[in-house]
């Protein structure tokens, strides 16, 4: 239950208290509910992919860990580096958004006590926010206590926030029936901006669903990850989508979309109908939502740092886990200090677009990982240096068995070894050997075809979304690029649908958990949607993110790559690895 509440609390932020007015006025009109529904379906595509990988490979590293296994260390490093940026800026932005809302309870926008109020430092031209920094330190201390305690508090805050939203739904429905739902009787109709406006609204409200992926980062702290993680992801997304749609149905019906207050749409809607006191209740809901989102932003980052440090890409300092609380306390404190410093000194609102890059990159790479897992799963795994001695001993034993089949043991051992020799001799039969070689060749060709098809899908999606989004190309050139990208996408998708999936997918990771449906169509749709949203984040956002990613490349080259746990490993087949791990654990 706490896992489910954690997902809901991380997802249901204060965005719904603001997005309702902005998106209804500028994009969707009365069709705002459909915008939330379409965005929820798009988010569900990523949720399905997350659910399978979280079930198969439960790890605190979440998307970083999945891409590390399926794609490779370099790509995984960039994903983890982007997520570090996302969670730090996201937590800081949320913390700075709490203090203006708290000030409303003290009489106005600038009515907080002096010690908590914002102050301008004239010689630096900086507005500091002590309240935001104090809240970050408070949440950091709570996260250091333990995962159960922090998720319990987050669960209480989430329940209170949901109660406020239920009040909005119930009271708003009553007012709507009393006034005749005037918002749905406007002259522009249900789709005043057309279908394109509704879809544009879906792209905007999609970011209100970001947060469910934080459930996957608690994989090592839940009792049954194969059951709890997929259920937590699905439950949090379903609850959030239902609440968003019901709130939008009510608020759009109470006030015509063109008359909505873009900043405080819900409280102003109640104020128009004589319920001034509801403003305080709605504001308290916004504060609770922001506090819950702050917890959801600071919870995953220490666990991603811990996973990266375990792989040697960051100093081992970040992988230390407290024996008492079973929490990466040092990583949590470092995360809290960085987020509090940003919240205290910087106005991070202009960096808000950078928050979405890490999440959308993670969503995209998780969908690609599903395709790789199903069609070309890793057939070899790295064996740590500590187990390489066991690997060499097993090889020597196999050679001795083949070289001296009768051995010096008892009659039963000799009989079994003679059977092994008979099997070896039968395999050396020319006809059987030819058939085995043909099967191996067919499997090798299938894997090559699948890998090329996945690459074709990714390249086609990139060309299609980029050419459809740019405005400086001539119309004819844009159409040609769109057609070319679409053909690549369809060719790759068609080939993946035609060839068989790899048999090794059944034994990869933990079996018996959630299985993503409609593969390859669902992951390909997920890649297409997330790439389109990534490209449309804007050039300024990508320039700032590019600087951060280049810094990450240098850190990886000069530290991560030289200290990586993969530098002294031997790659062995999955069967050999399972045998070695089994023998080492039994001994």
CA-based gyration radius: 27 Å
Shape, please?
globular
User: What integer is the average pLDDT?
Assistant: 82
Strand order, largest beta sheet? 1-2
The CATH architecture assignment of the domain at 1-375 turns out to be Up-down Bundle
CATH topology grouping of the domain at 1-375:
Amino acid/polyamine transporter I
Q: Return the structural class.
A: mainly alpha
Major beta sheet summary: 2 strands, antiparallel
Q: For this structure, what is the CATH homologous superfamily of the domain at 1-375?
A: Amino acid/polyamine transporter I
**Overall helicity:** 55-70%
Q: Roughly how many Å apart are the termini?
A: 38 Å
Main location: membrane
Family: Belongs to the amino acid-polyamine-organocation (APC) superfamily. Cationic amino acid transporter (CAT) (TC 2.A.3.3) family.
Protein name: Cationic amino acid transporter C-terminal domain-containing protein
InterPro entries: AA/rel_permease1, CAT_C
């Amino acid at each position: 239950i706490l896992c489910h509440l954690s997902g809901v609390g991380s997802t249901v932020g204060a965005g719904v208290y603001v997005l309702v007015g902005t998106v209804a006025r500028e994009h969707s009109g009365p069709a705002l509910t459909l915008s939330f529904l379409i965005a929820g379906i798009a988010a569900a595509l990523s949720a399905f992919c997350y659910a399978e990988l979280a079930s198969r490979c439960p790890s605190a590293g979440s998307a970083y860990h999945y891409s590390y296994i399926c794609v490779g260390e370099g790509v995984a490093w960039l994903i983890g580096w982007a997520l570090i940026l996302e969670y730090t800026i996201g937590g800081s932005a949320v913390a700075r958004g709490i203090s203006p809302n708290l000030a409303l309870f003290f009489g106005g926008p600038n009515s907080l006590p002096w010690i908590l109020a914002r102050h301008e430092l004239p010689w630096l031209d900086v507005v500091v926010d002590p309240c935001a920094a104090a809240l970050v330190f408070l949440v950091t201390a709570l996260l250091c206590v333990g995962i159960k305690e922090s998720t319990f508090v987050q669960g209480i805050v989430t329940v209170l926030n949901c109660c406020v939203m239920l009040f909005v739904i119930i009271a708003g429905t009553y007012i709507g029936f009393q006034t005749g739902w005037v918002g749905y009787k406007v002259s522009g109709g249900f789709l005043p901006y057309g279908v394109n406006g509704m879809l544009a609204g879906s792209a905007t409200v999609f970011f209100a669903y970001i947060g469910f992926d934080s459930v996957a980062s608690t994989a090592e702290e839940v009792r049954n990850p194969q059951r709890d993680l997929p259920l937590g992801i699905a439950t949090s997304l379903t609850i959030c989508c239902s609440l968003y749609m019901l709130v939008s149905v009510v608020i759009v019906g109470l006030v015509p979309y063109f008359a909505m207050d873009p900043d405080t749409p819900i409280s102003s809607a109640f104020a128009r109908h004589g319920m001034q006191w509801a403003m305080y209740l709605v504001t308290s809901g916004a504060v609770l939502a922001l506090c819950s989102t702050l917890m959801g932003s600071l919870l995953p980052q220490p666990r991603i740092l811990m996973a990266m440090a375990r792989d040697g890409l960051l100093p081992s300092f970040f992988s230390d886990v407290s024996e008492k609380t079973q929490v990466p306390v040092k990583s949590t404190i470092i995360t809290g200090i960085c987020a509090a410093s940003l919240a205290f000194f910087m106005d991070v609102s202009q960096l808000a677009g950078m928050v979405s890059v890490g999440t959308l990159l993670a969503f995209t790479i998780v969908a690609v990982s599903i395709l790789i897992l199903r069609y070309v799963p890793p057939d070899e795994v790295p064996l740590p240096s500590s187990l390489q001695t066991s690997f060499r001993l097993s090889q020597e034993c196999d050679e001795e068995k083949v070289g001296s089949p009768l051995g010096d043991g008892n009659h039963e051992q000799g009989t079994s070894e003679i059977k092994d020799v008979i099997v070896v001799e039968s395999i050396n039969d020319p006809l059987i050997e030819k058939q085995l070689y043909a099967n191996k060749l067919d499997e090798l060709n299938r894997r090559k075809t699948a890998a090329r098809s996945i690459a074709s899908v990714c390249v086609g999606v990139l060309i299609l979304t980029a050419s459809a989004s740019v405005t400086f190309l001539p119309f004819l050139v844009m159409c040609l690029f769109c057609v070319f990208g679409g053909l690549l996408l369809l060719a790759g998708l068609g080939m993946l649908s035609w060839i068989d999936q790899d048999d090794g997918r059944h034994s990869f990771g933990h079996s018996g958990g959630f299985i993503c449906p409609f593969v390859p169509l669902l992951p390909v749709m997920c890649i297409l949607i997330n790439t389109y949203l990534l490209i449309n984040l804007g050039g300024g956002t990508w320039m700032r993110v590019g600087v951060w990613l280049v810094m990450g490349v240098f850190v990886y080259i000069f530290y991560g790559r030289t200290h990586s746990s993969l530098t002294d490993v031997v790659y062995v087949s999955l069967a050999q690895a399972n045998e070695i791990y089994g023998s080492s654990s039994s001994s």
